[in-house]
Amino acid sequence: MSKFQIHTIESAPEAAQEALKAVQQANGFIPNLIGVLANAPTALETYRTVGGINGRNSLTAEEREVVQITAAVVNGCGFCVAGHTKIALKLLKMPEEVVNALRATSRIDSDDKLDTLARFTLAVMLQKAKLTEAQLNEFFAAGYNQQNAIDVILGVSLATLCNYVNNIAETPINPELQPFA
Fold first, then answer.
1. What's the confidence (pLDDT) of residue 165?
2. How far apart are alpha carbons 105 and 103 in whole angstroms?
3. Closest CA relative to residue 71, chosen from 35, 135, 124, 111
4. Where does the record place the Carboxymuconolactone decarboxylase-like domain (predicted)?
5. 23, 51, 78, 181: which has the highest count of C-beta atoms within 10 A?
6. Residue 146 placed within a domain
7. Is the pTM of this model over 0.90?
8. What is the domain range of residue 139?
9. Residue 78 CB neighbour total at 10 angstroms
10. Where are the alpha helices (H) located in 11-111, listed in sequence order?
11. How many domains does the chain contain in total?
12. What is the mean pLDDT of residues 28-43?
């Protein structure tokens, strides 16, 4: 049971109702994270706005999911691990071994570039982005650039909002996401 109210369209503050309607229409259900974020309409707006911006950053969709899953694992957010696992496997058709490696924070043997990205994301988080020259050089040698590095930080910032809200609220995982938990 959540420590915070999980809003429906009807129970949400008026300022959050249109966003909940849009999410319901797009997904067929309202993820509990969105219902919790509705307690703070500006946080919900931030999530939706930054999520849209993150969705058009310089990383590929698969690379964005590497960042999101890595961040969710580091931040201990089972809800976001499940949600992004579903996106990675079902929507993007990412290989199961890649997703399993991300969830375990282990090496991605089948894709050196994604492995470098996952390790870079992990270092950004654990070292508060105070990376060594060698870490940056390894990231750049894998084919990434300065814009990509900053977009990793953008993705981590979005993930942190969601992960922390879920962690404080103890948001239960929706039945639609349970198979990916």
1. 99
2. 6
3. 124
4. 49-105
5. 23
6. yes
7. yes
8. 61-162
9. 18
10. 14-27, 32-37, 41-54, 61-74, 78-86, 96-104
11. 1
12. 98
Rounded Cα distance, 77 and 5, in Å: 18
Question: Which secondary structure element, helix H or strand E, spans residue 120, and what is its range?
Answer: helix 112-126
φ, ψ at 69 (rounded to 5°): -65, -45
The reported pLDDT for the residue numbered 41 is: 99
Sign of the CA dihedral with 18 first, then 25, 60, and 177 last: positive
Max distance between CA atoms of the chain, in angstroms, equals: 53
Is there a domain that residue 92 lies in? yes
Q: Is 155 a domain residue?
A: yes
Domain containing 126 — which CATH number?
Answer: 1.20.1290.10
Do the beta carbons of residue 33 and residue 166 sit within 8 Å?
yes
**Structure tokens of 148?**
């990509």
| 106-158 residue pLDDT tens | 999 999 999 999 999 999 999 999 999 999 999 999 999 999 999 999 999 99
C-beta separation of 121 from 152 below 8 A: yes
Placement of tokens 């282990």 in the chain? 106
pLDDT digits (tens, 9 = 90+) for 39-52: 999 999 999 999 99
Residue 29 lies in a domain: no
C-beta of residue 5 within 8 angstroms of C-beta of residue 39: yes
Q: List % helix, strand, coil for the chain (3-state, nearest 5).
A: 65, 0, 35
Amino acid found at 135: Q
